[in-house]
Amino acid sequence: MAKFFTHTFPQEFRRSWPFIGACIALTILWAAVAYAIVLHNPSDANALLPDWLVPGHITKSLHDSNFAFTPEQSAAMSSEIISNNIRVAILTFAGGIVTLGAFTLYLIIFNALMLGALAALFAQAGFGPDFWATVAPHGFIELTAIQIAGGAGLLIAAGVLLPGRMRRRDAIARNGRRAGVLIGGVVAMLCVAGIIEGFFSPLRFGIGVRAGVGIATGAALVLYFALAGRITADRAV
């Protein structure tokens, strides 16, 4: 287990970067597009998202509306958040198997549109800084995990569509093993994100503190995926 998280998972992340990076690029692009559209005309949020996802007249911050539960409810909320996020990650991964990546790309873009549109709506209501400070502590981990799950789905699709010189079934088996490593890491990441969202995010810290925690988690992720397992791998070469 220790070797998986210190070597196997981060090494596979770097090896699969073209697929994961493509999901990250799509997320940034479509989140920015949705933000610009909705910020210019808030009613366009209903054209981008289902009605049940679009909040009505916003009168309080995301922090006050999403975390209006007592500390005694944190464990239950954390469990529910983790379960929901893992379901999304598995669907994103499974889209690479069943639809050859089409459903994977759909979910990646849909999540990006949701993030950008909601950010714009809260910014229009005067709660922009609070929105990002509320999302940041768990969001860097959670969103990165979803992109990794998307990369795993595209990796599976590549085994079918782009087997190279390998037999297609061999390419699928090889990429399936690699995707399994990524999904194992994703599940662990989403557990960490859910714990943060259930226990830390509801606390009444100021925007600066919440944003600082988010920046710290983001920096830790970058260092982990950039450096973990690299020294051993270089020596082995």
Q: Which SSEs are present, and which pair or pack?
A:
Layout: H1 2-15, H2 17-40, H3 45-48, H4 62-66, H5 74-98, H6 102-124, H7 128-161, H8 168-200, H9 207-227, H10 230-236
Helix pairs in contact: 1-8, 1-9, 2-6, 2-7, 5-6, 5-7, 5-8, 6-7, 7-8, 7-9
Amount of helix = over 70%
Number of domain modules: 1
Computed over alpha carbons, the radius of gyration is 19 Å
The proportion of residues in beta strands is under 5%
Average pLDDT confidence is: 87
Distance between the termini: 23 Å
Note down, in words, how this protein is organized.
The chain is mainly alpha-helical. It has one domain. 80% of the residues lie in helices and 0% in strands. It contains ten helices and no strands. The protein has helices at residues 2-15, 17-40, 45-48, 62-66, 74-98, 102-124, 128-161, 168-200, 207-227, 230-236. Helix 5 (74-98) crosses helix 6 (102-124), helix 5 packs parallel to helix 7 (128-161) and helix 5 packs antiparallel against helix 8 (168-200). The chain starts with a helix and ends with a helix. 38% of the residues are buried.
Describe, in short, the structure shown.
With 237 residues, this protein is mainly α.
Defining key terms:
237 residues, mainly alpha, 0% strand
